[in-house]
């Protein structure tokens, strides 16, 4: 199992680094990017503009899926994974050196949005390759457990990102944090990316890709073959991941902003609550991987979607009540359900496609679903909470759970 351990460590470290990069942006966008990078009209308008910049990465992700999927299906998983991580990490590092709106005016949000777009390009090719690295090396009967290992990068990256922001918030004054402290997590990402690259360059190509090359030449244009021969599977995968993105960004980004503005909780108190709740996501991912091998990834995913709908029903009464303990209980339940809709994806999505277009297919389903489920969700949730209250936000979450159930029903029978 030495080779298996190295592969799993590589898939986990890579996604942990990648999600760390992604989450420090989401956290900084919620806490400081509004007043630092956007014109001062109102605090709510600045927060919505900052949330919209989060959505830019989701627009870029399908393009990244096409580009990196093309090379991943034609040249191999390993080199493509290295390139995606370099793009993601380089963009994140450069954010640390950006001037603010007070320094250079409109150039500041332009540069921020450009680097956020580049982050999305890198992420578009990252997840699919990491999932394939795990599941295409999995022994019989272990696909669910191997597939959930890269998924654990999400809570690991979240804990590292929010934990660092929490420590900075405790060590620095609000003025120092806004002036320069927020830049430190972006600088620290360089060391993590270096670690991820060091692990990945030592890997070999996956057996499934090597066997596919022995049987036939790679697809000339993987995205064209995907659209022509595997459109239904792509649609199924796309809708199947909507729930996990909507739940995550409502439970973390939106609720963090709502708790620290509308409810008036301190940043440190709310981040501590989220850090405890995220442990339930890790537990859910691990359980989902184990249950996927005992049953099927699709059944586990379906059960998680029902839990997402229930989380939507409970959002308004529990989060709107104002008690931090009750909010923490809702976050713990919601993120546990997040584990059940996210954990099985590493095994479920790649299985929808043959090896010759699997990188492109899994990446497109994951990232287009991310656009639908997560791209504008924080901004929409913020607007709905102001105009219609938290019950409307819960309705959006319930609709996302139903959308993913529809995706499961679309899976072609032969798959």
Automatic annotation (TrEMBL):
It is a multi-pass membrane protein. Signal peptide: none annotated. It is found in: Cell membrane. The chain crosses the membrane at residues 50-68, 80-98, 152-172, 184-201, 235-258, 270-291, 298-319, 325-353, 365-384, 390-411. Keywords: Cell membrane, Membrane, Transmembrane, Transmembrane helix, Transport. Its main location: membrane. The keyword ATP-binding does not apply. It holds the Pfam family Sugar_tr. Residues 7-415 form the Major facilitator superfamily (MFS) profile domain. It comes from the Bacteria. This is MFS transporter. It comes from Sphingomonas hankookensis. The lineage of its organism: Bacteria, Pseudomonadati, Pseudomonadota, Alphaproteobacteria, Sphingomonadales. The keyword Repeat does not apply.
């Amino acid at each position: 199992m030495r080779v298996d351990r190295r592969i799993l460590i590589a898939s986990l470290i890579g996604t942990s680094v990648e999600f760390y990069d992604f989450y420090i942006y989401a956290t900084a966008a919620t806490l400081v990017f509004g007043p630092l990078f956007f014109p001062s009209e109102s605090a709510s308008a600045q927060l919505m503009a900052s949330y919209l910049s989060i959505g830019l990465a989701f627009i870029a992700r399908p393009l990244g899926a096409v580009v990196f999927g093309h090379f991943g299906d034609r040249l191999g998983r390993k080199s493509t994974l290295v390139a995606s991580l370099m793009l993601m990490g380089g963009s994140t590092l450069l954010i640390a050196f950006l001037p603010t709106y007070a320094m250079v005016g409109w150039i500041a949000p332009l540069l921020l949005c450009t680097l956020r777009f580049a982050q999305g390009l890198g992420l578009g090719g990252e997840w699919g390759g990491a999932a394939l690295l795990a599941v295409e090396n999995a022994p019989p009967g272990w696909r669910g457990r191997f597939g959930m290992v890269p998924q654990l990068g999400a809570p690991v990256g979240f804990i590292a990102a929010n934990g660092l922001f929490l420590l900075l918030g405790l060590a620095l004054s609000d003025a120092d944090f806004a002036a320069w402290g927020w830049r430190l997590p972006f600088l620290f990402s360089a060391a993590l990316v270096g670690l991820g690259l060091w692990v990945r360059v030592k890997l070999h190509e996956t057996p499934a890709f090597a066997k596919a090359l022995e049987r036939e030449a790679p697809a000339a244009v993987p995205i064209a073959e995907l659209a022509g021969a595997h459109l239904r599977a792509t649609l199924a995968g796309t809708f199947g991941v909507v729930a996990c993105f909507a739940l995550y960004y409502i439970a973390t980004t939106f609720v963090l902003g709502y708790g620290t503005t509308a409810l008036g909780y301190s940043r440190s108190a709310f981040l501590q609550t989220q850090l405890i709740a995220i442990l339930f996501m890790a537990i859910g991912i691990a359980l989902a991987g184990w249950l996927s091998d005992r049953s099927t990834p699709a059944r586990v995913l379906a059960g998680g979607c029902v839990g997402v709908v229930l989380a939507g029903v409970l959002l308004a009464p529990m989060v709107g009540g104002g008690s931090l303990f009750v909010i923490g209980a809702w976050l713990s339940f919601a993120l546990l359900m997040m584990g059940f809709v996210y954990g099985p994806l590493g095994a479920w999505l790649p299985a929808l496609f043959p090896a010759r277009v699997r990188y492109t297919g899994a990446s497109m389903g994951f990232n287009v679903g991310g656009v639908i489920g997560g791209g504008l969700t924080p901004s929409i949730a913020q607007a709905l909470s102001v105009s219609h209250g938290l019950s409307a936000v819960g309705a959006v979450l319930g609709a996302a759970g139903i959308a993913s159930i529809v995706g499961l029903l679309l899976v072609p029978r032969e798959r």
